[in-house]
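Query structure, 262 tokens:
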């Protein structure tokens, strides 16, 4: 799926979050570096690869994920040979299955729907990050806030809930902290389905990642269908589904002339 990624530079100030880190109001070195990369690879790999269901409900045992081998060096070598500058890996998609051994506590026990309990125990995130380092590719990680296995809300209610349940919000914070701490080389975080979280929850996640890795770029995926939705992405409207985000992107439509009066 092709995506258009543009820097999203907004004035970083509104009364309800004056102490939180917010997107830069001018182009800073981290955003200049991001803009100059231009061309990258998105790797959608995980439980869906083995169930054949993109929007996998997360109802299959962890052992269903069972690749014979993981050759992340080959993935990234292809990116390098194609002239790409960065790559993004789906560390956790909607099935809730993690491509690293997550040690965080969830509902009274260690999180156990990950590679450690699967048919291949390779830490794919580590293999991916190391391969990026070998080939000079900037690594990024995708993490989905829509989670059909671990979020207690019914599937159909998660899409526009605008509030993650407390236990799942804590899981998201803990796992993103784990990723940022264990893989400090990662410079780009792609958080999908931001409308599943409240504006305050999104602001907290953005602030947390930026403090853990000051040089990272954080994207809350908009994926709008109607270009008019871009009108909601303003500082004044803090309920905009992508706020706060460093990058405004589109999954299906080319973004119109950006950030002018529409």
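Result returned for the query:
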């Amino acid at each position: 799926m092709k995506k258009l990624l543009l820097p999203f530079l907004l004035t970083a100030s509104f009364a309800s979050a004056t102490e939180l880190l917010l997107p830069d109001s001018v182009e800073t070195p981290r955003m200049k570096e991001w803009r100059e990369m231009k061309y990258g690879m998105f790797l959608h790999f995980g439980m869906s690869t083995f169930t054949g269901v993109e929007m996998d409900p997360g109802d299959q045992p962890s052992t269903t994920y069972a690749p014979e081998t993981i050759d992340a060096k080959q993935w990234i070598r292809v990116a390098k040979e194609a002239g790409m500058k960065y790559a993004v890996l789906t560390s956790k998609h909607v099935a809730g299955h993690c491509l690293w051994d997550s040690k965080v506590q969830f509902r009274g026990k260690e999180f156990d729907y990950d590679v450690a309990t699967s048919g291949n125990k390779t830490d794919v995130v580590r293999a991916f990050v190391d391969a990026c380092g070998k080939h000079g590719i900037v690594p990024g990680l995708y993490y989905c806030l829509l989670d059909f296995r671990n979020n207690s809300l019914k599937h159909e209610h998660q899409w526009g809930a605008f509030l993650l349940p407390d236990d799942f919000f804590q899981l998201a914070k803990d796992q993103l902290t784990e990723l940022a701490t264990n893989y400090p080389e990662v410079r780009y975080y792609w958080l999908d389905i931001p409308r599943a979280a409240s504006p305050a929850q999104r602001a907290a996640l953005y602030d947390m990642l930026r403090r853990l890795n000051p040089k990272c770029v954080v994207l809350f995926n908009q994926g709008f269908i109607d270009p008019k939705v871009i009108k909601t992405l303003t500082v004044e409207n803090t309920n905009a589904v992508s706020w706060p985000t460093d990058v405004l992107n589109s999954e299906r439509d080319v973004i119109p002339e950006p950030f002018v009066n529409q």
